[in-house]
């Protein structure tokens, strides 16, 4: 009989993450139920009391009153309000709607009512959402490159002050930034901190604008910014919906810029946080590693992925790489035994490729890995990951051995 293959690292990480997400959802549901359920019950009790009082005072039967309220709810769903609101389907309103569709915000305050509009939305959203996700990935690539360039300049300045670099040391061309990025990658934690500070600053500035223009309190404005920037889009608060504003054109432009920059920044921050979560999962898996069987432990240590970085592993990276290189006679054998897409030698060689070439190949393949590396491997190009996670793996220090 064939023995079942042991659970590999990727599957173990996936199952552990699924279990943690289920626990996270259960905990969140428990907290929100405890916080919001009493308020909901009290509101329902007040509404029933008001309904019966209104029916008794004005001598209107409850069925007739409920039928009228159903008509009012249908009018609200169609976008009709008692107070004067801006037209929903003029060109600015329709542009606002398609922006919330392709960015997956989906406030829900405007929805197509015709069959033709619903059919067109399905086709329009299919390509629009795909293109917007690609735009977010390319934005992520460029913001990481920009942060890497700035952090590299600060790193070189620090080394020059400490005397580790000669005073006449010059970086590469300023246009391409190639020379300043070869052989050095920013820390994922530093990038997460910078993106977090930028996101908080952006949300605070946008909240100040919404508080002044929309009349919301500051906490509601911050809540709206997070719900919108994270593309949750509940729709309980929606900006730019009144019939007229003071300096309306300037406000609409500022609202568009804040939402665009906020969504891009939060998307990038979410992807950086996902890398940190993955590192924590690797650390948890290592803690759960089988230690009672020396044979399994030895096999796991020899065949494990060498580029899986866990917290605290950076100090042991140099010794591990030297031990790993000594175990294999050739790159082919090492690549076959480790199960990696590329060998350490190929990975080190790929880091010498200029950043300009990397950006071109990333935009062509949208998977974050240089084409020359993928061609030299025996596995398909999707083995190393696709999209934002692959971009982060290729650009940040804690997710590769090429620092």
UniProtKB/TrEMBL annotation:
Keywords (A to Z) from UniProt: Cell membrane, Ion channel, Ion transport, Membrane, Metal-binding, Potassium, Potassium channel, Potassium transport, Transmembrane, Transmembrane helix, Transport, Voltage-gated channel
InterPro entries listed in its UniProt record: 2pore_dom_K_chnl (IPR003280), 2pore_dom_K_chnl_THIK (IPR005410), K_chnl_dom (IPR013099)
Membrane topology: Multi-pass membrane protein
GO BP of this protein: stabilization of membrane potential
Known catalytic reactions: K(+)(in) = K(+)(out)
Subcellular location: Cell membrane
GO molecular-function terms, A-Z: metal ion binding; outward rectifier potassium channel activity; potassium ion leak channel activity
Transmembrane segments: 94-112, 119-140, 188-210, 222-244, 256-277
Major localisation: membrane
Location of the Potassium channel domain: 86-143, 199-278
A GO-annotated cellular component: monoatomic ion channel complex
Ligase is among the record's keywords: no
Family affiliation: Belongs to the two pore domain potassium channel (TC 1.A.1.8) family.
Stated name of the protein: KCNKC protein
Gene source species: Rhinopomastus cyanomelas (Common scimitarbill)
